[in-house]
Every structure is written in structure tokens, then in C-alpha cells.
TrEMBL record:
Top-level taxon of the source organism: Bacteria
Protein name: ABC transporter permease
Family recorded in the similarity comment: Belongs to the binding-protein-dependent transport system permease family.
TM annotation in the entry: 37-54, 75-101, 133-150, 157-177, 189-214
Organism name: Kitasatospora indigofera
Length: 225
């Protein structure tokens, strides 16, 4: 049996069309878990990154820490979270937040640091407070970097959220884990392919967002010479 036959069996199964094990339901579960992790990561990392980027304090530490966290094994973190918090959403959210936060933090720091110093000085010269400069000048300038960081974090989280199935939660990981457990390779291959397609769709979404949603002035400012 080849891959095409496996995919045909997977998609053609009645269970994939409706019910709790349907493709749409599993995708919805996967996206909901990913979105929750990205929300908490953004809430923690972006304000901190903006502050560090503006003050310039702790930049070296952030860069070193962000690089180190990427080497952490997600499944190992899930196991540790289960031991500390028990089986549940928290056991998966903690590792996913830890995975998503570093690229968001670095993006916020670098985005603010790349703001034109002359523009910042001019803003201060006309009487703007530090908070007004950060939110009114630096933040808009950092939007492309933030969007790039969010794209990286989103793809990583979507690809890694399959670990939720290890602790009995839903999402596309259910297909992969259950398929391996029952030697149903059609389900395993189908689930893995859906994760890949979802990650690619996220990449395309953010590429379009960066192209059409950002103000033209900011896009031109970030365009290489």
C-alpha cells in the first residue's frame, strides 16, 4: 500500500467527515490550542521585548537565552509539566508558550532597536514622553519584525502542538499518536500531512499579512536598498 492509498483511505473514512474525530474538528482543536499558547506567549514576551529594546538593558541576555531555549526538548518539557501540574491543558501550554516566547521576544527587541535614532531623538525633542515614543514611534516601526517573529512562533507551535495527544488532548496529534498505536499508517500519514499543510497555510497567511496589512510607509522603511 503506497502513500496515495493511505491518504485516500484516511480522507474517505466516514469518521473523518463528522463527529469528534473528523478532520474539521481536529483542525479546530489544533488551532485553538495553538492560538491559546501564542496569546500567552505574546502577552509575556512582546511587552518585555519592547521595554528591553527601548532601554537597551538585557539585550545580550535575551539573545543568549532565546538561542538556548530553542534547544529544549518539547516532549521532555511536556513530561515535566505533567509531573508538576498533572495531565491537562497546562501540561501542553507551558512547553508551547516556552517555545513561542523566544522568537517573539527577540523580534520585539530587534524591532525597537532598529528604529531610526534620529526619529526617536526628534520625538523626544518635541516633548514626547518615553512611553509616547515607545508606543507611538518605536512600536509602529517594529511591526514588521513583530510580524516576522509571530510567523516563526506560529509555525513552530502548530508543528509542535501534536504533543498534546501524548497527554490525552485533541488536535491533529491524535491522528499521529493513535495511528502509530494501532499501526494504522493511513491515519498517521494523514495526520502528519495535515500538520504540514496547516503550518504552510500559516506561513502564507503571514506573508500576505505583511504584504497587504502593513502601512505602505512601514513596508518601504523595512525594504532593503
Amino acid at each position: 500500500m503506497n502513500w496515495l492509498s493511505w491518504l485516500s483511505d484516511f480522507i474517505g473514512s466516514p469518521d473523518r467527515r463528522s463527529g469528534p474525530d473528523s478532520i474539521l474538528n481536529r483542525i479546530a482543536e489544533h488551532l485553538a490550542l495553538s492560538a491559546e499558547a501564542l496569546f500567552y506567549a505574546s502577552l509575556l514576551a512582546i511587552p518585555l521585548g519592547l521595554l528591553i529594546g527601548y532601554t537597551g538593558r538585557g539585550v545580550t541576555f535575551v539573545t543568549a537565552t532565546a538561542g538556548a531555549t530553542r534547544a529544549l526538548p518539547t516532549l521532555g518539557l511536556v513530561t515535566l509539566a505533567v509531573l508538576l501540574a498533572g495531565v491537562g491543558d497546562t501540561a501542553v501550554l507551558l512547553p508551547l508558550v516556552a517555545l513561542a516566547a523566544p522568537p517573539l521576544l527577540v523580534a520585539a527587541v530587534e524591532g525597537v532597536r532598529d528604529t531610526d535614532p534620529d526619529v526617536r531623538d526628534a520625538a523626544r525633542g518635541v516633548g514626547m514622553t518615553h512611553r509616547q515614543v515607545l508606543l507611538g514611534v518605536c512600536l509602529p516601526s517594529a511591526l514588521p519584525a513583530l510580524l516576522a517573529g509571530l510567523r516563526t512562533a506560529t509555525v513552530q507551535v502548530i508543528a509542535t502542538a501534536t504533543v498534546a495527544a501524548y497527554v490525552g488532548l485533541g488536535g491533529l496529534g491524535r491522528y499521529v499518536i493513535d495511528g502509530l498505536a494501532t499501526r494504522d499508517y493511513a491515519v498517521t500519514v494523514g495526520g502528519a500531512l495535515l500538520v504540514v499543510l496547516l503550518a504552510v497555510a500559516a506561513q502564507l497567511f503571514f506573508a500576505l499579512l505583511a504584504r497587504y496589512a502593513l502601512p505602505p510607509g512601514i513596508r518601504a522603511q523595512r525594504r532593503p536598498d
